[in-house]
Amino acid sequence: MPLASADPAPMFSSSPLLLICLGFIVGLFIGLTGLGGGAVVVPILTLVCGMSQAKAQGTSLSIILSPLQAPAIYNYAKKGNVDWHFLIWMAPGVLVGSFVGSYLANLLPREALKIIFSLLLVYIGAYMLGMVATQENVKRSVIAALVVTLIAGIGMFGFRRASNGSLATQAPDAQKSPGDLTS
Question: What is the pLDDT of residues 68-83, one digit of tens each?
C-alpha cells in the first residue's frame, strides 16, 4: 500500500510522545462514551495535526482497527489517505485510554454518562456544521463548536435545576405502568 501523501505542515509536532498522548485522549473518549474513533479522532487529526479530511478519516479507521473496517482502510490506503506513522504511535495510547475510559464509565453514575455523551454529540455536530459554514476553517469551527457546546451545557444544567434535579419532568400518563394505559 502506498504511503500517505504530504499534507500541509501540522500545527504541532507529530512526535511519538505527542501521538501517544493524543491516542490516550481518543481512547479515553472511546471507552467513556462508546463513540467510534471517527467522532473524536478526525477532529483531532485535522485540527492538531493539520491533516486533510480524507487522510484524517483513513487514518482514524486504521487506528480504531476492526476486521469489519478492513475494506474501507484498504480503499483509503490505496489512495494514500492513511498515515501509518500516526497509526503506529497513536495505537498504544488508544489502547490504554480506552481501558481507562471504560473503567471510568463503569464508575460514573448513569446520568453523568448521558450528559458527557450528549455534550460530546453537540460538540461534534456543531464542529461539522462549522466546517461547512466556514468552508473548512478548522480554528473557527472548533471555537464555534466549543461555544455551542458551552451554551448547550449551561442550558441543560439550568433546565435540570429548574426541574428539581431531573432532566425532564414526566407527564402524569408517563408515570403509569403500561397495563394502566389501556383504559
Answer: 778 888 899 999 998 8
**Burial letters for 93-127: b for 16+ Cβ neighbours within 10 Å, e otherwise?**
bbebbbeebbeebeeeeeeebebbbbbbebbbebb
In 3D space, the residue among 62, 35, 60, 34 whose CA is nearest the CA of residue 45 turns out to be 60
* CA distance linking residue 135 with residue 131, whole number of Å: 6
Q: Where are the domains of the chain?
A: 1-107, 108-168
Cell numbers for 113 = 454518562
Count CB atoms within 10 A of the CB of residue 166. 10
Output 152-156 pairs: Cβ under 8 A, ≥24 positions apart. Answer: 152/118, 152/119, 152/122, 153/119, 156/115, 156/118, 156/119
pTM of the model: 0.64
- Cβ(62)–Cβ(87) under 8 Å? yes
